[in-house]
Amino acid sequence: MKITKEEVERVAHLARLNLSVQELETMTGQLDTILSYVAKLDELDTTGVQAMTHAFSVSNAFREDRVTDSLARQEALANGPCQNGEAFVVPRII
Amino acid sequence: MNPYELTIAQAIGQLAAGSLSSRELTQSCLERTKAVDDKVKAFLVVTPELALAQADEADMIRARGDAQPLCGIPLSIKDLLCTKGIVTTCGSRMLEHFVPPYDATVVEKLKGQGAVILGKVAMDEFAMGSTSENCAFRVPENPWKLGFVSGGSSGGSAASVAALECPGSLGSDTGGSIRQPASLCGIVGIKPTYGLVSRYGLVAFASSLDQIGPLTRDVTDCALMLNAICGYDPKDSTSVRQEVPDFSSSLTKGLQGMRVGVPREYFGEGLDPEVRAVVTHGIEVLRDAGSEIIEVSLPRTDYCVAVYYLIATAEASSNLARYDGVSYGFRDMEVKTLMEMYKETRSQGFGAEVKRRILIGTYALSAGYYDAYYKKASQVRTLILGDFNRAFEQCDVLISPVVPTPAWKLGEKAENPLAMYLSDVLTISANLAGIPGISVPGGFSRGGLPIGIQLQGAHFREDSLFKVAYNLEQGLNLPPQRPGIA
Fold this sequence. Notes:
Number of helices of chain A: 3
Strand order of the largest sheet of chain B: 1-3-2-4-6-5-10-11-9-7-8
Shape of chain A: flat
Shape of chain B: globular
Helix content of chain B: 25-40%
Structural class of chain B: alpha/beta
Order of helices and strands of chain B: HHEHEHEHEHEEHEHEHHHHEHHEEH
CATH class of the domain at 5-43 in chain A: Mainly Alpha
Radius of gyration of chain B: 21 Å
CATH topology of chain B: Amidase signature (AS) enzymes
CATH architecture of the domain at 5-43 in chain A: Orthogonal Bundle
CATH superfamily of chain B: Amidase signature (AS) domain
Order of helices and strands of chain A: HHH
Number of domains of chain B: 1
Helix content of chain A: 25-40%
Largest sheet of chain B: 11 strands, mixed
CATH superfamily of the domain at 5-43 in chain A: Glu-tRNAGln amidotransferase C subunit, N-terminal domain
Strand content of chain A: under 5%
Largest sheet of chain A: none
Distance between the termini of chain A: 41 Å
Radius of gyration of chain A: 23 Å
CATH class of chain B: Alpha Beta
Largest interface: A-B, 50 and 71 residues
Oligomer: heterodimer
Number of strands of chain B: 11
């Protein structure tokens, strides 16, 4: 076994997902199959190989430090599932 | 011939000659869509009024003599590209009511050319899938054989073009999502070099792999559309600041001096004999056109799927963390605490495949596993890129199948995620290496399903890709066929 139900539950919490009993069962089996498959990478020796971050060399992309137009507040709020015209509203945090 | 049957280049000819207006062309495509889309199910939303208004505007621009190449051409757009004022769902319940306040750069560029947007087309949820069956709303079917998959994740794009609902579409390709549906639906689709096309306004799946590209009925149209959407964009820091050539100028006959590589690992076990025969014939066509055929090796091909499903899921788990129910998208309004708001919103808003990939990615990035999975995969990715670089020292373009088999029945692989992932084996390496790849129609199976041929090139060598693709298309000279849609 590459992964247990308890580990899937822990990862689901990290990913902020609730899994039903049935989902947990199915996902654990499927994740185990997938993780067993990707373990084939262990066949390759990667000692000293640099991890790839970009397909070709790129350096930092900076733009000029100049103020440009951005979204108006009403437009930015328009897709909010709960908003009061000034801000997004969420459940009480403290 | 009905206007909806015209390719982009043919339509441009008639529009320029004044024998066709954009309104007539757009009307024709809308009527065709109305007639066949109940069966093909490519569109999630059609915007007829907006399209006809854009068509009238295009006709006015043309009358003024200011028409750019795509002026007045109706197109469909994959539903993960932001369209200002038009709902953009990404195939997900999570974004069912999301109306973007801005256009993606590629959409802005198309509109700037005077192109007409017919509507938004179906896709796998967040572009995760190989059949479009993960779409939360509607699953497109293969226009050549209903009940068979159109491919994915840009299944709606491919189906809409193959079904003659529109002459071209914009899709996106993270592991084959343009080339694979293009192959299964018998059309042309290109994934450009990473950085050639701006990703601004593309709903992100795996940012180091995602790239936008066109799907069209022939190679000429594909070059025309890529011309219109490529180029540096300050809004995408990974778009590359360099001159872009006119890809249409690559479409000339004759391949003298061109070296075409045949990667032996792409012709291994599991390759359908009919697919093998089509690609073998394609190789002969390229030889006859004057190119030199060379056998090459990409020794890490067998590891690409494993690398991909760690890197793509890791990036997805990070990108999709933004769907938290706060600033846009679905939210469960019933829950009382912040943690439950996050969890219930995400659990109800995402479908099974998206959850599965978020879980794999979160696991691969979590403390204690990062080195074994994500770092290891990124190192093997370096080796894969090295394999391609060595191959492109020996040849200019690689030829191979796109998908190991023709289209399969809807539902056939839906219960086995790993089997589905393995069907992407021939396309995902281009995304890992950042190189361009194109799918060109190569023929048909005995069952009447299209089979595509893939060409891959070195970084920013779309010119070579188009030249070889054009010669392949001309040399194959497939008899014109129209899907029966039955």
